[in-house]
Amino acid sequence: MSWNTAKKRLTRDIEGLPKRLRDHYQREAIKYALPTFDVQTPPLLKNKDIKSLHEIGITEGDLIYITEGENKGTVTTVTKYLSNYDSFVVTNSTSKRLFQKSNWVEGQTSHVIDFPNFIPRSHVRLAGKEKDESGATNYLVADKVVLKDKYYDDRYKKWLPRRYVKHHETIEIPWPNPPGKLEEGELSTEGDAVLDKTYELQTIAKPPVPAEALAQLRNPHSKYKKRVLSELQARRLKAPEMPLSTEQKIYLAKNANKPKKTYTNLSPEIEDFIGSKMAEHISKIDNPAMLTHLEALSKSTIPDFEKTMKNIKESEQA
Fold first, then answer.
1. DSSP label at 156?
2. Which parts of the chain are beta strand (E)?
3. Which among 318, 304, 311 has a CA at the least distance from the CA of 264?
4. Which of 152, 217, 305, 308 has the fewest CB atoms within 10 Å, counting from its CB?
5. 286 class by beta-carbon count within 10 Å (0-12 exposed, 13-18 middle, 19+ buried)
6. Which residues are within 8 A (CB) of 138 and not within 5 positions of it... i.e. 6 or more apart?
């Protein structure tokens, strides 16, 4: 058995879980992340909900109008579509983020970089640009777009639908030029031969593959057809009961006799001492990025700290 097959049993696939559980596991994954190192990303989509650029009607190089967020009311250009997050990356929309040195890219010299913002597709509208008789540039924003009347676009080398403004279907917004020139490969089809048919199904009454050849194409001894679990598969589905070693038994016996741990608050003298040391250290920091990081860190909540404070209150009340 290869590792690629075996590792699927050891990974958690959250795509098949309900939304509430997916959100729970995503919060658990980032709850210990430092606030200024955390990149806020939209939730991942299920595989069945992922769409391509031409299915949503907006592609790289299009003009879009942003309806919500910090850049509300601006017209900008799409540079990338993140299909897993159903979000866009646009020009002139970045924020300062801190990146640890282990994640630096080649040529990076600072912890602070301009990280692109993710703009959800629900916050954008397709826009078009035109010039009037006086030469002034005007922008047209489409609240909804209708995709119909497919045609072969020689620039993209594929069939694309035409984009019309809904309720104003006499207005068409053309597709932009591709971001880069498409290079033809070994499997590319010549433009003159695109519409040529090399195979056509004649009838649905007769299968395309002869019955005599099915035995060579299918495995008659496939384990997926037996509907019976083997002994090895049954053992994998039931976790074994592991016996305790001698050391584990001794450790559990010692812990059972230990008194319950009590929690107490720090004395005022210790709190003043720690506060003075931290103030002395912070006063020596002159890097604004580090001060911003420490300010955000002071406002964050740490689950272990909250748990400890809860134990202290319970000990005082007991």
1. T
2. 63-66, 75-82, 87-90, 94-98, 112-116, 119-120, 124-131, 137-142, 145-153, 158-165, 168-172
3. 311
4. 217
5. exposed
6. 129, 130, 131, 132
The alpha carbon of 177 is separated from its chain's Cα centroid by a whole number of angstroms, namely: 27
DSSP bridge partners of 114: 96
Radius of gyration over every alpha carbon of the chain, rounded to an integer in angstroms: 31
Q: Are 258 and 251 in contact (CB under 8 A)?
A: no
Alpha helices of the chain — where are they, by DSSP H? 3-6, 19-30, 53-56, 214-217, 231-237, 246-257, 268-283, 288-299, 303-317
pLDDT digits (tens, 9 = 90+) for 20-51: 888 888 788 777 766 666 566 777 777 778 88
Alpha-carbon span 301 to 318, nearest angstrom: 26
The model carries a pTM of 0.51
Residue closest to 52 by CA, chosen among 185, 161, 189: 161
The sign of the CA dihedral 62, 65, 66, 72 is positive
pLDDT in tens, 227-262: 888 888 888 888 778 899 999 999 999 988 888 788
Task: State the Cα–Cα distance between residues 36 and 94, nearest whole angstrom.
Answer: 15
Domains and their CATH numbers in the chain: 42-180 (2.30.30.30)
Cα–Cα nearest to 87, from 128, 116, 61: 116
